[in-house]
Amino acid sequence: MAFLYLLVGPPGSGKRTVGRHLSGLTGAPLLDNHITNDPVFQAFGLDGVRPVPPEAWVFASKMRTSLREAVGAAPRELSHIFTLYLTDQPGEAESLERFRALAAARGAAFVPVWLSCDTDELARRMLLPERAERLKLRDPEWLRTLLRDAGILPPPSDAILIDTAALAPADAALLIASHAGALF
Prior knowledge:
Layout: E1 3-8, H1 15-26, E2 30-31, H2 33-43, H3 54-73, E3 80-84, H4 92-106, E4 109-116, H5 119-125, H6 140-150, E5 160-163, H7 169-183
Parallel strand pairs: 1-3, 1-4, 2-3, 4-5
Helix pairs in contact: 1-7, 2-3, 5-6
């Protein structure tokens, strides 16, 4: 059976890192949110420190739509791993439902995973040098403002909940893979 894993968490929660480990365990390609965001961020001259202007998100959304369409057309036996930060703002729950619908259309098991981490630890992670490689958010104060103003979408009832401050990325990936296997 194919799986569509959706790893959701705030910036710095380890979505890509956990996703890379999960990809290694399952063979599913990792379709990290920066695959679609970074080309747009580069076109807008962004650096991970300055805020992303609203018009950039319009283009990033179009890129995400194209990627979801490609996954919809991919061989049905393939599993996929997506990463995303969903805020607790209007319209974000619909994004979750688009992934759920994509899994259903493919006949894949949908595995939502909510990653959490203490805000102080997230702020510390903003300063890690590897965050600059993918135009990731790198300003601890901007992160705090983002979390205060936008929050994170509450997890659906079927989500796997993981505190990435308490669990190593490889262990988190193993938990996800084993939990998904046990459920489906």
